[in-house]
Here is the input.
Amino acid sequence: GAVVSQHPSWVICKSGTSVKIECRSLDFQATTMFWYRQFPKQSLMLMATSNEGSKATYEQGVEKDKFLINHASLTLSTLTVTSAHPEDSSFYICSAMIAGFNTGELFFGEGSRLTVL
Amino acid sequence: QKEVEQDPGPLSVPEGAIVSLNCTYSNSAFQYFMWYRQYSRKGPELLMYTYSSGNKEDGRFTAQVDKSSKYISLFIRDSQPSDSATYLCAMNSGGYQKVTFGIGTKLQVIP
Here is the structure.
């Protein structure tokens, strides 16, 4: 099956620092990846759509300067939370679609739990 | 009105029961329908994927789509305690369009 690896699985940082989360498609190429945020007992909230080789498309209300997304290759997208604050503490999950498959199937990473002190 | 409606539960059933999970949607452009299972503090896992109206079976799981009623279901037969998780329905209009998720139904299967 299609495997998406996300790293780190959990991170604790001090307020004001930046944190980078990596999302890799291990056995397929992904021209499109998605970044979600999930609060406890709530569903997935789409933050942005990451397209290989172009700028990410952010959902309304998501600060693009705070959540930097880079999709430099067909197998890697990164999310950098800049100048993190306690309110940024959340569960961040990436997902990917298989390039060339026009089916809408999403494959998710294991998620990254960010705690900002 | 939300694009996708899903009862958050929780739903508690005894082991061996048949579980029925449902979602309704309002966007007639949705063509692809998925069910994901999410264990606590983990990323969602794709369980079932369907395109057309009708049934699709995979082991103990059956996905059902009724496009005319804008209603999808996931049935779990012979439910096991290991099935205890949150089940999310998801759908999109195809291509690389964003996927819209239901809020998820929390299921607990009691031994």
